[in-house]
Amino acid sequence: TEDEITLFERDMKEFWTEFKSVYGTEQINQTLTLRDSCKEAIEALSAKWTKKLKEGDLMIDKIQEYNSEILQQNKCISEKEEQLAEIKLNQEEEQQKKLTDSIQELKEELAKQMEILSSKDKAVKEKMERLCKSKVLFEECLGLEIRRIHNEQLQFIFRHIDHKDPDKPYTFTLSINEQGDYEVTSCTPPLDCIAEFQLKVRETNNFPAFVANIRKAFTALSYK
Prior knowledge:
The chain is of the alpha+beta class and about 220 residues long. The chain is built from 5 helices and 4 strands; from the N terminus they run αααββββαα. Among the domains are: about 70-135; about 145-224, 2-Layer Sandwich (Copper Amine Oxidase, Chain A, domain 1), CATH 3.30.457. α3 (about 95-140) crosses α5 and α4 runs antiparallel to α5.
């Protein structure tokens, strides 16, 4: 957890302060290497759980939304069934048929809602899996950093694009809208072709190509 990581880093700093007062330069240099390795491992662990939290949050939001609708449908069905049970034998057959038909319609609508829920859950899981698998590739090959920010969005930060200023960031922010499509919510510096790239990734579902094309566009912009 993040609390455990913070506590571990604090203990490492206290250990380092005490260690420097006892050992010489050579031992300190060796410990520096070990400390850096530990820090890298901690950062990797933090990134891993951040991805898992993102996946879980998205799926929980979708499931809660559809569960609410399903509960409402079940409530309506129960109410209709209670009304049907209260009808006396001498009441008109037509009234009984109307209530029976109404219950059947609600059950069919409930079945459709559950099918939609299953389909959307599957689509969200598949997209998040592709995002997670692509993250490592992007960071290694494209010099890309991916951050989770507010409103369940992901921020993509490119560096080493401007040869005059390698640390200059080129960023865009991505979310998944209510239809389950990728949506770019911001882009700095702005790109005229971002709408075209967004439309293409919705059609092809080729997310790695989408990110690579944006990086190429940023690179071309840096030479202007």
